[in-house]
Design a protein that fits this description.
This protein is an alpha+beta fold. The protein is built from two helices and five strands. It has a domain of 71 residues: Cysteine protease Prp (Alpha-Beta Plaits).
Length: 107
């Protein structure tokens, strides 16, 4: 199962980052449309945050988990990008409940 944890500021409700780990297990490696959907969306979001918008963020990918932590996000662009990813993964989880679990953790 893919586990997606999004970290939210308890103070203002903005998303601060995410941790995505696991494998969907929906199909054999190379044919798993759920893993492909998650991976593509996560990489698009991380690359948009760091490369396109040049936002203050740290990204770590150890092969089993990708972690993104936003730094200073005064105009809320990072929050909006993470909200888009959160929504996408939540909807994937509704469609594939045994393959994707999404949760929000207040910090």
């Amino acid at each position: 199962m893919v586990k997606a944890e999004f970290f939210r500021s308890a103070a203002d409700g903005r998303l601060l980052g995410f941790s995505i780990s696991g494998h969907a297990g929906f199909a054999d490696e190379g044919f798993d449309i759920v893993c492909a959907s998650v991976s593509s969306a996560v990489m698009l979001t991380a690359n948009t945050v760091t490369e396109s918008f040049k936002l203050d963020a740290k990204v770590a990918d150890n092969g089993n988990e990708i972690l993104l932590k936003l730094g200073n996000d005064p105009d809320g662009c990072g929050d909006k990008l993470l909200l888009g990813l959160l929504t996408h993964l939540y909807l994937l989880g509704e469609q594939f409940p045994d393959a994707v679990k999404t949760e929000i953790i207040d910090r």
